[in-house]
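Lab notebook, bench 4. The sequencing result for the construct came back, and we need a structural model before the next group meeting so we can plan mutations. Quick request posted to the team channel:

Model the 3D structure of this chain.
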Amino acid sequence: MSENSHSMAARAPQVWERVPKRNPNFTGRADLLLALRKSISPVTAVVAQPMALQGLGGVGKTQLAVEYAWQYRTHYDLVWWVSADQPMLVPSALAAMATALGLPPATSTGVEQAAQSVLRALQSGVPYRSWLMIFDNAEEPDLIKDYIPRGTGHVIITSRNSRWSDYEDTVAVDVFKREESMAFLLKRLAGAVTEPEANQVAEVLGDLPLALEQAAALLSRTLMPVDEYVGLVKQRTGAVLNLEKSPTYPQSMTAAWQVSVSQLEDRVPAAVEVLRCCAFFGPEPIPRDVFRRGNQAVGPRLAQILSDPIMLTNALSNLERLALVKVEPSTRTLQVHRLNQALLRDETSPEDREELRHEVHMLLAGTAPSDPDDTARWSRFEELAAHLEPSGLIECTVPAVRKFALDLVRYLYVRGSYKQAQALLDQYIAKWTQDSGPRHADVLKARIHLGLVYLGLTFYTRASELMSETLQVMTEELGPDRPETLWAKKSYAAALRGRGEFFQARQSDQELLEAYERTPDKRDDPDTLQARNNLAVDYALTSDYNKASKLLQEAYLHMSSREGIGRRVLLTAWSNLSRAVRLSGQFEVATDVAEEAYAYGVAQLGDDHPITLLAAKDYAISLRRSGRLGEALELMRSTHTRLHRLYGDVHADTMAAAIGLSNALRADGEIEEALRMAKRGLDHYPDVFGNEHPFTHACNVNLALLTRLNGDPAKAREISERALAGLTERLGRDHDYTVSCAINLQNDLAALGLHDEARRLGEENHRRIRASFHPDHYLSLVCAANLSLDLRATGAEKEAEQLLSDTTRRLDAVLGRDHPETLSVLAGERLNSDFDPPPI
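Done. Here's the predicted structure in C-alpha cell form:
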C-alpha cells in the first residue's frame, strides 16, 4: 500500500493532547510500525476498526504507539491519548476532549454526558474527520469497549490481554530483535559500550526493552563495566529463580531490576523506601503532592523521609536516574512500571506489605480535596481515584480513609459516572458490612450514596426502597436529627419524587425543613435553604402554586444575599421560582423572572450548562404562555437541540424539551411536526419513569390533544380517558394535571358531537377548578370558556352568555385583549390545555 493512500496535507494536528514525549532513543520496530500502518484503515474510510497492540509488560507496546502517533501525526487533525489502565477513569479522559470538539465542558454537563457527546462527535466526523485515539494499557475489553469510538478516524489500543483478539484485529508485539537491542544500547549509551558488549547485555536480558532501558540507565549512572553488570545479572537471576518468583515475570526483567535496586539500596536507602511505597499505589501517575501534603498523615516508616524535602527530592532524583520511576515535571507526577511494582510487592514480607499499604491509604486520604461537589477539584480527585482499587483502600477501616472513599464515589456521582460509582459502592457495602456490620454508619452512608446513584440511573423504585430501609436504620442508630440522617431524608424525598409519589415527598420534605428550623443557627444555612427549595418543588408538583411561590421567594432571596451559595444552586432556585409563578397563572411576571434567571445562567454558567438549559426551557414556556410564540419557538428549538447534543434522546431533560417544543409547534399551527415531536419525547417516558408515573399519563394528555387536532377525536378520547383514570388514581381528581386532562377530554367529546356529556364533564371540572384554584387562574378561565360553548350547544343560551361575558372580562384583565387565547375565545373557538414536564 502506498504512503500516499494514507496521506493528507503535511501539517501538525490541530489538537494534540496527552501524547507522551517522543522517545529520543526509540530504535527499530520499523516492521511493526509498517504492519500497524498497513493494518489500520485509511483516513478516507467510513469505518475504521481499532487496532490492539497486545503483549507482555515491558516489551514496548506503549512506546510503539507513541512513535506511531509522532511519525504519522501529519495525517490527523486530532490526536488524543487516553490512559485506560483504570477503566473508571476512561470517561473523564474522553470528557476532557469536549472543549476541543466545540462541545460543552464536563464541568457544565457532567463527565459521563460529556464523554457520550465526545463519542457522538468523533463518530460523526464533526468537527474533525481524521482523528487518532490511543487507549493505553486497556487490559479488560469488556470494561472499555463501549467507550471506543467508531467512525471516520482510527483507534489504537495497547494491552497485555490476548482477549482483545476476540474483539479487534491485533498486532503482536514481542521483545526486540537482537540487532534492535544492540542499536538501542549503542544509541542510549552514546559510545560507552562496544557492539560485543551491547550484544552481551542484550543476551543476558533477553532483549526485553524495559530491562534494556533500566540497564542503560544503571550503566550510564554508575559507569559499571559491562562484564561486572552481566555477572551480577546472572547471579541475581539464579537468586530470583530460587525464590520461585511468579513465572509471569521475565527472568531478564527480574534480574535487571534486582541489580538496580541493589545498587540504590547501598547508596540511598530512603529512595528504596519511597520506591516500595510507590509499589502499593496503582500503575497510573502518582501526584507528587501526595508526598508533600500527606507527610503528617503517615506512620514512622515514611515520616522521616516525607518531613525532609531535601531527602525526598534526592530519593526521587535517584529513582528517576536509574529508570525505576518516570517523573513528569509538567504534571507533577511520578510513575512506576507495573512490573517493577509487582516485583517490589512480591519481595516484601506480609507484615511490611500491610504497613506500606496502610501508609498509602493515609497518604491518599491526607491529600484529598474536602469537597467533591466543587468542580474545580475534579482533576485532583481523578488523579487519586486511579489508586483506589490497586491500593486496596476499600479494606481500610480508618474513618478518614473511609470518608475519602465515599468522597471519591460522590465525585464519580456528581460528574455523572453512575455505573462506575455503583460498582464501587457495591464493593464498599459488601466489604464494610463484613468488617463493621450492616448497621455501621459508614455502611449506611454508602447505601444512601448508592440510592442517589440509582436515581441518576432512573431506577426510582430501587432507590426508594433502599433509601426507605436505610433511613429507618439511620434514625434508630444515629438519631433523627443527625446531619447524616437529615441528608438521607432529603435523598429519600428525591426518590419519592422520582417515583411520582409527590404527596409523600412533600410530607417528608416538610418534616425535614422543620428539623432544620428547630436549630436556630441553621434557619438560613445552605442545608435549610435547600430544604425550602425542595419543599417548594413538592408544592408545585402537588399543584399548590401559591405556597410554592412563597417558599421559593424566601429561599431565593436568602440564597442571593448569602455567601457560600453556588451559582448552580442559586439558578435552580431562581428557575423554580419562575416556574411556580407561571403555574400560578401569572404569565407576564413569570416571563420577566425567567428572563432574568436565564440571563444569569448564560453569564455565570454558560449557554450549555444543564441548569442554564433548564432555565432556557422554562423561559421559552413562559414566552409561549405570554403569547410571544415566535420567540418561544426559536428558544425551545435551540434548547432541545443543545440538550439532545448533551444527552441524546433518552434523558429526562431532553424528553421534557421535546414535549415543550411540541407544545410550541402546536401553538404555532405546526400540528404534524408537533405530533412527531410529542411522540419522540413520549416514546421514552415508560422506560425512564414507568407506565403509571404521573408524567407519563400527563404527556399522553398532549398526545390526545394532537391526535384530535390531527383529525381523530375518537382516538383522542380513548387516550384522554386512560390518562384521566391514571392521573386520578395517582394524584387525585383535583390536581392540575388531572383537571387539565379533563379539559381536553371535554373538547374531545364536543368534537364527537357529544355535547351533553361534554357539558356534564365541564360543569364538574369547573366546580373542582374554582374550588382548588383562584377564579382568575388560567385553568379556570379555559374551562369556563369551553363550558360556555357546551352550554350554548345544549340550549342553555342565557347561562352560556353570562359565563362567556364573565370569562372574557377576566381573560382581558389577566392575559390582555391581544393575547392569542383571548382572541380565540372572542372568535368562538375552544381552548386546550397541555403539559410541560418540570424537573424533579
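The radius of gyration is 33 Å.
Will bring this to the meeting.
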